[in-house]
């Protein structure tokens, strides 16, 4: 393995609107629009996941408001 024994995310192929990603012995799909437009089969990609606390709070408040409207009638 490379990169200090960390498994890499490798673009295996593109199928319609999906990028087929190889991660060790696993294969999964992610939407193609999330992949840089110049990416090609065989490229190694990095994914960074962050939390959007503000959007989470807005969504939670909207869900609570909806639940209050439904169950308080």
Into which percent range does the helicity of residues fall?
25-40%
| Low-confidence regions | none
| Structure classification | alpha+beta
Sketch the topology as an H/E string, one letter per element.
EEEEH
Strand order of the largest sheet: 3-2-1-4
Largest sheet: 4 strands, antiparallel
The total of beta strands comes to 4
* Spatial gap, N to C terminus: 60 Å
The 3D shape can be described as: elongated
Q: Total number of helical segments? A: 1
Briefly summarize what is shown.
With 73 residues, this protein is α+β, with helices and mostly antiparallel strands.
Describe this entry's structure for a reader.
The protein is of the alpha+beta class and 73 residues long. The protein has one domain (9-71). 26% of the residues lie in helices and 29% in strands. The chain has one helix spanning 53-71; strands spanning 9-15, 18-23, 26-31, 44-45. Strands 3-2-1-4 form a four-stranded antiparallel sheet, with no helix packed on it. The mean pLDDT is 92.
Helix and strand topology:
Blueprint: E1 9-15, E2 18-23, E3 26-31, E4 44-45, H1 53-71
Antiparallel strand pairs: 1-2, 1-4, 2-3
Output the keywords.
73 residues; alpha+beta; 4-stranded antiparallel β-sheet; 1 helix; 4 strands
């Amino acid at each position: 393995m490379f990169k200090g024994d960390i498994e890499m995310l490798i673009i295996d192929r593109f199928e319609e609107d999906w990028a087929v990603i190889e991660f060790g012995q696993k294969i999964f799909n992610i939407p193609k629009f999330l992949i840089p437009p110049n990416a090609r089969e065989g490229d190694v990609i990095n994914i960074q996941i962050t939390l959007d606390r503000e959007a989470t709070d807005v969504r939670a408040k909207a869900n609570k408001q909806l639940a209050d409207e439904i169950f308080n009638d």
